[in-house]
Amino acid sequence: MKFNISHLTKYKYASEIADSVNEIRLTPRTNTHQTCLQSRITTSPQAPIYTYEDYFKNLVYSFSVADPHTLLTIHSESIVVTSNEEPVIKSVLTGAQELEELASERFLDDYAEYLHPSEYTPITPDISQMASQFEASHTFASLADKLTALTAQIKNDFTYDPSATQVQTKIDEMIQLRRGVCQDFAHLMIALCRTMGIPARYVSGYQYITDINGGNADFEQASHAWVEAYIPGVGWTGFDPTNNVPINWRYIILAYGRDYKDIVPVKGIYHGTPQQKLDVIVDVRQIN
Amino acid sequence: MFDARGTIRTHYQKLYDQLQQLGTSELISRSEKIKQQMILQGITFQIASATQGAERTIPFDVLPRIIPANDWSMIERGLNQRVRALNHFLGDMYHEQRFIKDGLISRRMIVNNPYFLPEMMHLDVPENIYTAISGIDLIRDEQGNYFVLEDNLRTPSGLSYIFKNRILMMHYFPDLYFSYHVRGLEKGTQELLTTLQDLAPNNKKDPVVVLLTPGRYNSAYFEHAFLAQQMGIDLVEGSDLRVINQKVYLQTISGRMKPVDVIYRRLDDSFLDPLAFNPNSLVGVPGLMNAYRAGNVAIANAPGTGIADDKLIYTRVPDMIRYYLSEEPVLKNVPTYSLRNPEERSFVLDNLEKMVVKQTSLSGGYGMLMGPQADKETIKAFRAQILGHPESYIAQRAIRLSQSPTLSGSMIESRTIDLRPFIFKGKQQVVLPGGLTRVAMEKGSLVVNSSQGGGSKDTWIV
């Protein structure tokens, strides 16, 4: 499916600010799931853009605005084609072979950064307890089964609630509240996977949502986050613990990382008043 | 000063004779004058664990430590070799990772090391120099063998004390100093500046070098100010620098913007750039990492060097020397045991009273067990900690460290010493003659760290 994506970020400051430096991770990836045909970023005030590929092969745009200003807009536009093939969550090795692979020295080295706790995905006593309860509650024929069941359980046990948490929320707090947003759901699943010895990474992107009349939805919720877990013999496989639906043509991938900290879509530092108003308008449209 | 039979080692003979002539009361009086001078000049140090603002002078012992030129030439070769290997290792870890691929270290140990910076991966640093300034801690056992205790490759401190100690000794003990042909330090600060200038991107002539300090509340602020002044470079804080279009500028008092080529930073990695690392850092320079990535500025030492001076990585340095240089290490490591390994662990646990146990993530003498001096309770507590997190500890056989005569009150007594020489790596690599001799001021203590009350001595290569 072909999409035209417009992602507009507007900062309005209460008084003039200066020396603003920024990093943007909003360029769709190209891989087996999708192809990014076009992508560009424009800013106002206008600024020369410096690009590089980060450790996770995300394309990063960086720019600075030194002169005083009260308004900063960052407009990212791209055209992406996603694969129409319905994803199949599968294992190719036997359950025993998968476990043997996960425990092998070579595997522990190759996926080290995705097995290690991170700032947003610490392995706390709560997480360890949840993981062992989950593992004791079922028997799983394969990792594909296990990860599918885990996704369903998180979706079932937690409530999606945009008012419950903030961008800095860590999973311990989310577990207490039993609610959160996609970022929290993703971090929770990542931490649980890592506790069980399964490599997991954070995916930021968009989920295309149509309204009842089949038209294009136009709201911020299009920005989304989910998880990829590594199934030996198969590879990185996507899961959405917020919605428990397959990662199909509706999902557009922007960036990968160990957790949110690696993929912050828009971040900046400036000199001046902390009083600012942020508006984000994301528009994902299907095109022919 | 004395050998095992109690006779004076030949290179200390003149010092001994001079001390006899001088007499104790004169020695004490000069020592007091030096102490006054240090307070006047603000040569102070803050202790992290003490209540805020607790500043004091680092105890200075007036009796110099003397190292004969023969020993020194071996040490110098060993240090040069070690720094070359460590620098190769860093370049390799942040590029091809051959040392991992060839099975000499596990990938986990690097990518999950808290000092590993993904931001440094595939970033080409100026002149391929990561460790422009290294401080390598050496100890000497009773037989006179030198061992490397620890590598310091991030922001090693102590340089200013070396220069300052020398100035004080030359001023207050000219008779003693000039009775030897001591290798001079006059060129030291110039060599440091040349090393930093060598890193300037695009071989720029007369590059602008600045020293970036976290500010006057930092424990080593005196050192930052002293070194900047000696080199004739600007001492700046993060707020004095701005990054515009991946170029770093210094805002001068006249309002002019001066482009900066080389930053000798005395901030930890995580505070260096709030855009790339800790967003709450108020002492860093936002956007610095992208200026660095774009090749417009050099940072000394490079961010991410902590993966090479970790206490676990330390055990692999002899392998690095063999691997990257095809040479045998000139300086040996202290025999070290990994507590991850069950066999080594049980050996260590059975011999805790003969071991020095260190927590791998802590430095400055914190989180340490000194087996030979610890009471049963402490040993018991450490045993439990080790069993809880064996991977967080290493153990080293406690070495009977060499002692040096030290003025304590009105007596001259033996105290434990170590040595931190500094190595500058620019287009040339040089070792500053001598280094900082640290001395445990408490009788019988083995801990020489200044954060734990240790003092220092001037170090003479003769």
UniProtKB/TrEMBL annotation, chain A:
SMART domains per the UniProt record, alphabetical: TGc
SUPFAM superfamilies: Cysteine proteinases
Highest taxon of the lineage: Bacteria
Upper lineage: Bacteria, Bacillati, Bacillota, Bacilli, Bacillales
Domain Transglutaminase-like per the UniProt entry, residue ranges: 174-243
InterPro entries with a match to the protein in the record: Bac_transglu_N, Papain-like_cys_pep_sf, Transglutaminase-like
Name recorded for this polypeptide: Transglutaminase-like putative cysteine protease
UniProt source species: Sporolactobacillus spathodeae
TrEMBL record, chain B:
InterPro entries for the chain: ATP-dep_Glu-Cys_Ligase-2 (IPR051680), CP_ATPgrasp_2 (IPR025841), UCP005522 (IPR016450)
Full protein name: Circularly permuted ATP-grasp superfamily protein
Listed PANTHER family: BLR5612 PROTEIN (PTHR34595), SLL1039 PROTEIN (PTHR34595:SF7)
Stretches assigned to coiled coil: none
A Pfam family of this chain: CP_ATPgrasp_2
Organism: Sporolactobacillus spathodeae
Ranges where the Circularly permuted ATP-grasp type domain occurs: 64-440
